[in-house]
Amino acid sequence: MRKFDVLVLGGGVGGMMSAIYAKRRGKNVAIIEEMMLGGVLWSIEKIENFPSYSEVSGATLAENFIKQIKHLGIKTISDEIIDVDFSSENKILVGKKEKYSAKSVIIASGLTYNKLGSNEDEFLGRGVSYCAVCDANFYKDKAVVVASRKGSGIKGALELAEVCKSVTILDSEDMSIYAKHNKNEKIKIISNVKALKVVGEKKLESVTFKVEDKEEKIVTSALFVELGKKPNTSLFKALKLDENGYILADEYMETSIKKVFAVGDIRAGKLKQLVCACSDGAIAGQNA
Ligand SMILES: Cc1cc2nc3c(=O)[nH]c(=O)nc-3n(C[C@H](O)[C@H](O)[C@H](O)COP(=O)(O)OP(=O)(O)OC[C@H]3O[C@@H](n4cnc5c(N)ncnc54)[C@H](O)[C@@H]3O)c2cc1C
After folding, report:
1. Looking at 173, 193, 226, which one is the last position of a domain?
2. Which residues have a Cβ under 8 Å from the Cβ of 231 and sit 6 or more positions away?
């Protein structure tokens, strides 16, 4: 079993920032990542709200972070963690390849966005977005569409309506009651939408869908997939979670189990953004 002072589970921004702070305190730290360091960054085309960049791609930020991780000599391990045991002083992470133990563990395994299950992935970053807060400003004064299920897109639509010209919610269920009470003139809602598909050449140009078997088309600049998200917490049932399954942590980012920390999108917090994951990581790395 490989032993460390601090193990970071997940190599997104939250995990990398945690490791940077722990390493600079002289800790023997490693990041365990199943895919690629950078996490969600690789799927972000354009970022306007990361400090010191007017505009930067997620890939550029990921590459810069990876250089910093290498420069500081932080160990990275390519493995998928499939089980954990936090019951004794030495915390155990069980990977597909090996077992690891550490005095402290920082969980930074992020969340999963529910997908439409159509062809939306082909247009990710080219008109399709999973994050209204992140990308609304790129569609200022444009007409946009929100994919929704049982009203899951309403919050995102309200966010978008602040900057976009119009927002059409395409909901898979009957939303006639909401439509009746909707007071926002920029927001229109279409109920019982089936077979929603993205159409375009290099980028999204329109969406097609069916209502009562009738084929419809809307010309639009963007489709926001707002079908909910779930934190990747299936391994962490021993920790206290909030009602939506996010890990609860205190001001030191420490969870209900001592020396187990949670940072970034997986932690119960109001805003899921890069700077928040960085801040969480700094605090956890400083205390782990
Ligand atoms: C499309 C999109 C656009 C966005 N745009 C912006 C923006 O413009 N500005 C902004 O501030 N924020 C933006 N965000 C939000 C921001 O990207 C996230 O808040 C942030 O990246 C979360 O970082 P994280 O480290 O918590 O999680 P992640 O980046 O999700 O990293 C989690 C990592 O853990 C790994 N992992 C998970 N489970 C395991 C396991 N069992 N074993 C090993 N590894 C595991 C995953 O492979 C992944 O690499 C956007 C998000 C999306 C989806």
Report:
1. 226
2. 110, 111, 112, 244, 245, 246, 247, 265, 266
- Structure token digits, residue 240: 């206290």
pLDDT at 125: 83
Q: Which protein residues are within 6 Å of ligand 1, measured from CB?
A: 9-15, 32-35, 39-41, 43-44, 47, 49, 80-81, 108-110, 129-131, 134, 232, 264-265, 272-275, 277
Atom of ligand 1 nearest to the CA of 39: 49
Strand partners, 32: 9, 77
69 with 105, same domain?
yes
Q: Is residue 196 domain-shared with residue 279, that is, in the same domain? A: no
Residue 197 and residue 123 share a domain: yes
Question: Rounded to two decimals, what is the model's pTM?
Answer: 0.90
- Average pLDDT by stretches of 10, the chain with 288 residues: 97 98 98 96 92 96 97 98 96 97 98 90 90 92 96 95 96 93 94 95 94 94 94 93 95 98 96 97 98
Identify the domain containing residue 22 by its residue range. Answer: 2-112+229-287
